[in-house]
Amino acid sequence: MRTFEAPGDPVTAEKRRAFCDAFEAINGTHGVNLTRHNYPALHGTLQTVATQCTDNLDDALLLPAFDQAVSINRAQDDH
Length: 79
Hints:
Blueprint: H1 13-22, E1 24-26, E2 29-32, E3 46-48, H2 57-60, H3 63-75
Antiparallel strand pairs: 1-2, 2-3
């Protein structure tokens, strides 16, 4: 039987604000960390067609966890 994860805690207002403060647009491209690393929770960049920071906010806030998982996997030794 497959089990599903319990819903996570709602995103705090502080995390929402930090993401929206870092959201930028340049030459018609929107996202974070486009011209400088202004959203430290995400190691790379996020480009989106969304023009508002809140359009895909819940999904975007999951990306730092994905970054962390990738970093952990890279650090593991292959045998």
